């Protein structure tokens, strides 16, 4: 029996205690991509270490050496997938920043919404998995969205104590999750921009493409002769 076959025969607990194999970052990325794609397509409960091993052409003992359990494996994949899609958005206008954020969210909503839906029950049962999901897909975007709103306040486009500011993240993330349930469609960029124009900007007192507040836009222009 080869050493690899012996490790597989020993089972996951013994294999995990063995010398951890050295894998390249590229190979690790392949494992993580396979995990997340299988979750999206088949659901968390159907995911197995054996299935990932088969799809990536490795031994399951290799996976068990790196990650002892399925929740640990998935949590690692989520953390490795951490990306901030809203970073770098700064058009100089709060309204345009929120539209840009909507377009960015729409570009990745299908993949991420599928993933969140597939993990729905599992994250309520495993604290590490729930925290990894927040760290990967939620917290970075909330921080970046908060920066967009903060700049809008600093520019005087919306009052710092405006009650709607607190709920903008819930609006943006809520519609991503709700549309598949309500309409059977994912929230694409066009839909999300229309949502921002119809719901988010009015809640903040913003109108049109200029980013000016509704109150400011109704002021009468001063006469040039004054």
Taking Cα atoms only, what radius of gyration do you get, to the nearest Å? 23 Å
Major sheet description = none
Mean pLDDT: 82
Helix fraction bin: 55-70%
User: What is the count of β-strands?
Assistant: 0
The proportion of residues in beta strands is under 5%
Alpha carbon gap, first and last residue: 96 Å
- The SS-based structural class is mainly alpha
- Segments where pLDDT lies below 50 for 5+ residues? 1-20, 210-226
Tell me the number of helical segments per DSSP (H or I, 4 or more residues long): 12
**Which outline best applies?**
elongated
**Order of SSEs:** HHHHHHHHHHHH
Report a brief summary of the structure.
The protein is mainly alpha-helical. Helices cover 67% and strands 0% of the residues. Helix 7 (94-119) runs antiparallel to helix 9 (127-154).
Structural description of this entry:
The protein has twelve helices and no strands. By secondary structure, the chain is an all-alpha fold. α3 crosses α7 (94-119).
Keywords:
226 residues, mainly alpha, disordered N terminus, disordered C terminus
Topology of helices and strands:
Elements: H1 3-10, H2 12-17, H3 25-42, H4 49-56, H5 60-66, H6 70-80, H7 94-119, H8 122-125, H9 127-154, H10 168-183, H11 189-204, H12 214-217
Helix pairs in contact: 3-4, 3-6, 3-7, 4-5, 6-9, 7-9, 7-11, 10-11
């Amino acid at each position: 029996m080869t050493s690899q076959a012996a490790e597989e025969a020993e089972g996951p607990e013994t294999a995990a205690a063995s010398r951890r194999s050295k894998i390249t970052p590229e190979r690790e990325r392949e494992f993580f991509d396979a995990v997340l794609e299988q979750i999206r397509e088949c659901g968390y409960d159907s995911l197995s270490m054996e299935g990932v091993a088969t799809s990536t052409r490795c031994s399951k003992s290799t996976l068990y050496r790196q990650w002892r359990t399925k929740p640990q494996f998935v949590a690692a994949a989520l953390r490795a997938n951490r990306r901030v899609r809203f970073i770098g958005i700064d058009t100089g206008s709060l309204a345009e920043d929120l539209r840009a954020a909507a377009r960015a969210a729409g570009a990745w909503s299908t993949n991420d919404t599928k993933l969140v839906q597939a993990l729905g029950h599992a994250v309520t049962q495993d604290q590490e998995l729930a925290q990894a999901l927040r760290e990967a897909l939620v917290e970075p975007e909330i921080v970046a969205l908060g920066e967009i709103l903060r700049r809008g306040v600093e520019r005087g486009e919306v009052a710092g104590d405006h009650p709607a500011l607190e709920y903008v993240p819930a609006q943006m993330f809520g519609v991503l999750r709700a549309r598949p349930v309500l309409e059977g469609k994912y929230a694409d960029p066009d839909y999300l921009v229309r949502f921002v124009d119809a719901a988010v900007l009015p809640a903040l007192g913003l109108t049109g493409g200029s980013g000016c507040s509704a109150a400011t836009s109704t002021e009468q222009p001063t006469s040039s002769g004054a």
